[in-house]
Amino acid sequence: MSTHTTPSETLVARCRAARRIVVLTGAGMSAESGIPTFRDRGTGLWARFDPQTLATAEAFQRDPDMVWAWYESRRHGVSRAVPNAGHLALTALAARPQTKSLTIVTQNVDDLHERAGAQAVLHLHGSLFSPRCFDCGCEFKGLSEAASDENRQTAMRLPPPRCPACDGLIRPGVVWFGEGLPKAVWREAQREVERADLLLVIGTSGLVYSAASLPDAARRRGCHVAVLNPDASTLSDGVGLDWQVRAAVGLPALLAALDD
Question: What are the structural domain ranges in the chain?
């Protein structure tokens, strides 16, 4: 297990040889841009609430105004964050001539990968920026940039918009507790892992399924797996390449080593 800020020769060699790369990212990737991990307690007005009690369909049905206000607060925080050096390094890795394809499979619901220039991003847990109707499921395109309105973002209750198709309530476009992953996105993530010759697992402890099953699937078919995470990970067993490093430090260092 490496704790150095420079990548191992083995990792560099495997990255140089890889043509199809899949990157699985978790909360640690966004935390370096100042976005709290989901399981952290809220701050300010939301400090007394457990996020896990708000992230359910039942909570939305019981009190849609409160749940919508909380997600608007989260969206506001994400909108103010900026991609970190790790996000930018992944975009640069994808642009290398040797890289035939690089797909990011993320458990994060922010848009930092896209704002860093990533072209192929699969959101396993949905996105704060893709709301849909609670009743009919239609995508909602009328989400305003109210994230810039500080008064809205400090409100504890905000009525959700209404669906123009059926007049149902618009819900956040994220996967709540008790819900399955979006089937099409999950199938595409599995296909990309099946074709990959390198899987980079970044900023995730490997506790959340079904995403945590992807490294096992990759290893079974002989794909190299490398974990970059400063904390202990359940994914480390049998990986061989476990680098205890923050994404914003390790990924730029890896990119620099590839260019040496």
Answer: 1-35+83-127+181-260, 36-80+132-171
Is position 125 annotated as part of the catalytic site? Answer: yes
Q: Does 148 score more than 80 pLDDT?
A: no
Superfamily of domain 1-35+83-127+181-260: TPP-binding domain (3.40.50.1220)
Question: CA Rg, the chain, in Å?
Answer: 19
CA angle, 143 then 40 then 204, to 5°: 90
Q: Which long-range contacts (CB under 8 A, 24 or more apart) does 37-44 make?
A: 42/70, 44/154
The structure's pTM equals 0.91
Residue 86 has pLDDT above 50, yes or no: yes
- For residues 170 and 115, what is the distance between their CA atoms, to the nearest angstrom? 25
Question: Are 257 and 251 within 8 A, CB to CB?
Answer: no
The topology under which CATH files domain 36-80+132-171 is SIR2/SIRT2 'Small Domain' (3.30.1600)
Structure tokens at 139: 């995508």
Q: Which of 113, 123, 125, 224 is catalytic?
A: 125
User: Mean pLDDT for the chain?
Assistant: 88
Tell me: pLDDT of 44 over 70: no
* 48: pLDDT strictly greater than 90: no
Encode pLDDT of 98-118 as tens digits.
999 999 999 999 999 999 999
Distance of CA 103 to the CA centre of its chain: 12
d(CA 70, CA 76): 10
Alpha helices for 32-96 (secondary structure H) = 51-54, 57-62, 64-80, 85-95
Closest to 176 measured CA to CA, from 235, 141, 134:
134
